[in-house]
Amino acid sequence: MILMDEEGTQYHARVFNQNFSRFRHLLKEDESYIVIKPNMAVVTNGFSYTGEPYFLRILLNKVKGPTSFDDIRTVNGQTHSSFRDVCYALGLLDDDKEYIDAIKEANHSGSGFYLRFLFATLLMCNSMSKPEVVWENTWEYLADGILYRQRQRFKSAELSLGVDELKNLTLFEIQQILLRNNSTLKNFKNMPYPDVESVSSSNNRLITEELDYDVPVIKNDYDRMFLALTNEQRNIFLNIMSAIQENKGGVFFVYGYGGTGKTFLWKTISAAIRSEGNIVLNVASSGIASLLLPGGRTTHSRFIIPFELIEDSFCNINPDGELASLIRKTSLIIWDEAPMVHKHAFEALDRTLKDLLRSSLRKLKGL
Ligand SMILES: Nc1ncnc2c1ncn2[C@@H]1O[C@H](COP(=O)(O)OP(=O)(O)OP(=O)(O)O)[C@@H](O)[C@H]1O
């Protein structure tokens, strides 16, 4: 095979092999740089796995008379974005079934940790043609033990994790194994990468508690309550929900005589937010009022407002702690019977939230 660059300089296949790292660099920068002359025999030997150039070398042995990279990338009229996909389309790569079967089989005798280690090892050895396909087919086995460990961690036998959360935690574990071996999931282009922020949320007991609702049940409650809202309640509901959805922020004061449906409105708003997998913190100034709110707490205990308040008090919240992360992830705070506390309590919470969110108090709503 002869390769020729745009300036007409010709390289023999042997040179191509010997200077492979140089060509690989060119391929990355501008793949159209190397032109392949048609009808030339291709002889390659002694190459190692080096990503896309490796697949190109396989193709140079198989595709007859290509005149451009697009020629090589086109199989049955379809142009693929990578040489690897072309190899796959031509059936030159295994379908990875053996690896999928191996992981499933290992599941009978090995723990989840062992399976994740096995998967990470397969990744590091570049054994799989399409690791993302193996991952999609085996992630449930690879996730084995992660839910149990989270339940132990939070001492909650009822704790449940969504599919995305479970996948994310599993990927995070695999990434940890790879990092210990000087590799990373980022080396595998089509493999999903764990969302580290969401992993730290999953490991935050307070956030997990606030997300641990049965979404279909809450959604049913929400549908029922929303239909029952009066016009006045619905207007308030829509105003607050649009402020949340558009991330506008806002402080809403809702006034009404006893029995006019304020608690009913709080319940509807809470169900609407929780049914979308978001967080609402329900607090009330008195213990009795807090019992009427779903997942309610007293404001003092939720935000650790000091009992002895002065005009420049702060809540005792560690900015790097779990409670601060929970507050940052919260879509709305509902504070029932807010005027029942001294204004210094508002101001302390306002100051603390500004400090934590580094913005004005945007998420406080009171009665
Ligand atoms: N839109 C509605 N549809 C059906 N029932 C409602 C509606 N709004 C309120 N209610 C019912 O009316 C009763 C009183 O409402 P709610 O407890 O929400 O009032 P409140 O304003 O919170 O009262 P208080 O200030 O005394 O706590 C409750 O039984 C509640 O379920």
From TrEMBL:
Pfam family, one: PIF1
Keyword terms of this UniProt record: ATP-binding, DNA damage, DNA recombination, DNA repair, Helicase, Hydrolase, Nucleotide-binding
The UniProt record lists the keyword Hydrolase: yes
Family annotation (InterPro entries): DNA_helicase_pif1-like_DEAD (IPR010285), NA-bd_OB-fold (IPR012340), P-loop_NTPase (IPR027417)
Catalytic activity annotation: ATP + H2O = ADP + phosphate + H(+)
GO term, biological process aspect, one: DNA recombination
Co-factor(s): Mg(2+)
EC number: 5.6.2.3
Residues in DNA helicase Pif1-like DEAD-box helicase domain copies: 229-360
GO molecular function list: 5'-3' DNA helicase activity; ATP binding; hydrolase activity
Annotated family: Belongs to the helicase family.
Name listed for the protein in its UniProt record: ATP-dependent DNA helicase
Species of the source: Lactuca virosa
